[in-house]
Design a protein that fits this description.
The complex is a heterodimer of chains A (247) and B (199). With 247 residues, chain A is of the alpha+beta class. Chain A has helices at 88-104, 112-128, 132-145, 191-194, 196-201, 205-211, 215-233, 238-243, and strands spanning 3-16, 20-27, 31-37, 56-62, 70-79, 167-169, 187-189. Helices cover 40% and strands 11% of the residues of chain B. Chain B is globular, with a radius of gyration of 22 Å. The chains are: A alpha+beta (247), B alpha/beta (199). The structure holds zinc ion (ZN) (2 copies).
């Protein structure tokens, strides 16, 4: 039974039996996977607080052939995001990242850029206490790294450039539509808002946030990208409904 | 042919749906029940039905109870000016084991957990705020679990309740009794330091 070491982000945990946990992880060297942590709910568990949602940890894991579920041998914290989640809104934003990542990233596929993306986003959430810009950046790059980012500048139906006009979308949309093609699509993404993409495409998240675009501007685009993320997952994100009305 | 006769298979299936019971344990229990006397089996069945019929939530504290209000809420010897807020009825049992707490309880039936779709609306908060209106309550002890969900819930509660002029305290988190400091991780150690007290 080989023991492997990898860095990982804890996406979420599920209780298993009396005191065990199933841990959903995004690991650096083995991709996204699930593993069992025996006795993790007990007060004197050897995992301590390492398996709390979104902990950035170093992990030793038993890999067994022909077994779906792996077993965690031990874990230690590299960086904790425990305290920032004390704030309910921060908790919602952080767990949105966890939920979207868990459902969007394919299992057992190593993805170094997605790993770094999540870390950068978590640190920005922690540092700024703001949800919109870090989450906009997260959605944008998650879709882009997954190769499913829609073209923000032209109509997904007729291909016409949107230019200064708004683009429209509805529930389940994966693209923006022009005014002619929109039919019942109720939500809009205005040209000024779409222009934000140009600002942060070439910048790191920190640099973009320091450059200081107003957060409300970003919300419109973030909402659209959330819709696209959901459409690709093919499932409603539980955390998304709780994000409504945040900053 | 099936592995088990139909009624036995059905019992095994039902048992497997219980927490912590896998195929093997379900089989063992099912065979045990099959061998047991009819009387034993009936007693078990009656107990199950009775729990469903007779247990409800206390209309004051939301604890599980047969009589409403529950034994805690209707006990005149318990201190009516302290409320201990817990996530689940289990937790009441854990606190009662200490025999050191003599106040009342309030059961939230959950903790803030966005990943499970549990926001403030899903918790028994309205009835808590209602209880505070009486003006009798002097202190709220928040005994939610020492994890992200429990912490978020505790902070949320304190933001809600402190403005009402009521003292809000949180149970200590940190090093478990009987373990050693060298094995504590940074968050556990940090919480232990934050929760230090003068001796
Ligand atoms: Zn069009
Ligand atoms: Zn009661």
């Amino acid at each position: 039974m080989p023991l492997r070491e990898t860095e990982a982000l804890v996406l979420r945990t599920y209780r298993l039996g009396e005191a065990d946990k199933i841990v959903s992880l995004f690991t650096r060297r083995m991709g996204r996977l699930r593993a069992v942590a025996s006795g993790a709910s007990r007060p004197k568990s050897r995992y301590g607080s390492a398996l709390e949602p979104m902990s950035y940890i170093r992990l030793w894991i038993f890999e067994r052939e022909n077994r779906d579920l792996l077993r965690i041998n031990s874990a230690e914290i590299i960086e904790s995001f425990f305290d920032m989640q004390k704030d309910y809104r921060q908790q919602v934003a952080t767990q949105y990242v966890a939920e979207a990542a868990e459902l969007f990233l394919p299992e057992r596929e190593v993805n170094e850029r997605a790993f770094r993306l999540i870390l950068v986003v978590l640190r920005a959430l922690k540092r700024t206490g703001e949800a919109t810009r870090p989450l906009l950046y997260f959605n944008y790059w998650l879709l882009r790294l997954g190769g499913v980012l829609p073209d923000l500048e032209s109509c997904g139906n007729c291909g016409r450039a949107l230019g200064d006009e708004a683009g429209y979308y509805g529930e389940g949309s994966e693209q923006l539509l022009c005014a002619n093609c929109r039919r019942a699509a109720p939500y809009q993404v205005r040209a000024t808002t779409r222009g934000l993409e140009r600002d942060f495409r070439g910048l790191s998240l920190d640099a973009w946030i320091s450059a200081g675009p107003a957060a409300p501007e970003c919300k419109e685009l973030r909402r659209f990208l959330e819709e696209v993320v959901e459409s690709h997952i093919g499932k409603k994100l539980v955390t998304r409904s709780l994000l409504a009305g945040d900053t | 042919m099936k592995d088990f006769a139909e009624p036995l298979a059905r019992l095994i299936d039902e048992l497997k749906r219980l927490p912590g019971i896998g195929q093997k344990s379900a089989q063992r229990i099912a065979f045990h029940l099959q061998r047991a006397s009819r009387e034993d089996a009936e007693r078990l069945a009656r107990a199950l039905i009775e729990v469903k019929d007779k247990i409800r939530l206390c209309s004051v504290c939301n604890n599980l109870t047969e009589l409403d209000p529950c034994g805690f809420c209707s006990d005149p010897t318990r201190a009516a000016d302290v409320l201990c807020v817990v996530e689940s009825p289990y937790n009441v049992v854990a606190i009662e084991k200490t025999r050191e707490y003599h106040g009342l309880y309030h059961v939230l039936h959950g903790a803030l957990s966005p990943l499970q779709g549990i926001g403030p609306e899903q918790l028994k908060l309205k009835s808590l705020l209602e209880r505070l209106k009486s003006g009798k309550i002097r202190e709220i002890i928040v005994a939610t679990n020492p994890n992200v969900e429990g912490e978020a819930t505790a902070i949320y509660l304190s933001k809600l309740i402190k403005p009402l002029g009521i003292k809000v305290t949180r149970i200590a988190m940190g090093i478990p009794v009987g373990s050693e400091l060298e094995f504590a991780d940074e968050i556990t150690m940090l919480k232990a330091l934050e929760g230090r007290r003068e001796i």
